[in-house]
Design goal:
By secondary structure, this protein is α+β, with helices and mostly antiparallel strands. It contains three helices and nine strands; from the N terminus they run E-E-E-E-E-E-E-E-H-E-H-H. It has one domain.
Length: 168
């Protein structure tokens, strides 16, 4: 679970804001995307949100809203394979978890790093494997952060998340 704070800096109301997430591999290739992002009141900060029906929100000018992005690192297989993305059978590398907020034709995103320092064997229990994944909060600064943002922005800008993760 990732909790995100979204602040509307625009001069207009951002209506129908929806959240999506994408996991990028070490070469910035998209490994998986999803739509399990739910909006919540500011007081709901206990990682135990109950109301999953709020998948969109209206954010007024200078208003701060909060959302939860849910990604099951244990049971989500890589597309087209039986390999689990996290924590089993992935190489030692820095993976990127990007949270995308889409409002109308506009998209905004931020990201955190998920560092896997060495390959985690399949015999390790899920709790032990998750403890070995290091969350990197400060990796998006400097020149490397700009390069990461640029490379991910290309995929995010071109992706129609509505049809990509929820085909009709």
């Amino acid at each position: 679970m990732f909790r995100a704070s979204v602040l509307n800096y625009g001069r207009a109301v951002a209506s129908d804001c929806e959240g999506f997430w994408t996991v990028f591999g070490p070469g910035f290739q998209e490994l998986e995307s999803g739509s399990t992002v739910f909006w919540s009141p500011g007081a709901d900060d206990d990682y135990d949100f109950q109301n999953r029906k709020f998948t969109s929100a209206v954010i007024k000018f200078n208003e701060r809203r909060f959302c939860w992005a849910e990604f099951d690192v244990v049971s989500t297989p890589v597309k087209g394979t039986r390999i689990q993305l996290f924590p089993y059978a992935c190489p030692a590398a820095l993976f990127i978890f990007a949270l995308v907020v889409q409002y109308g034709q506009y998209k905004s995103f931020d990201f955190v790093g998920l560092e896997v320092p060495k390959r985690i064997q399949t015999g390790v229990p899920a709790e032990g494997a998750i403890e070995k994944i290091e969350v990197k909060w400060d990796h998006n600064r400097g020149l490397r952060g700009l390069v990461r943002s640029y490379r991910m922005n290309r995929f995010i800008a071109e992706t129609d998340y509505h049809n990509y993760v929820r085909p009709t």
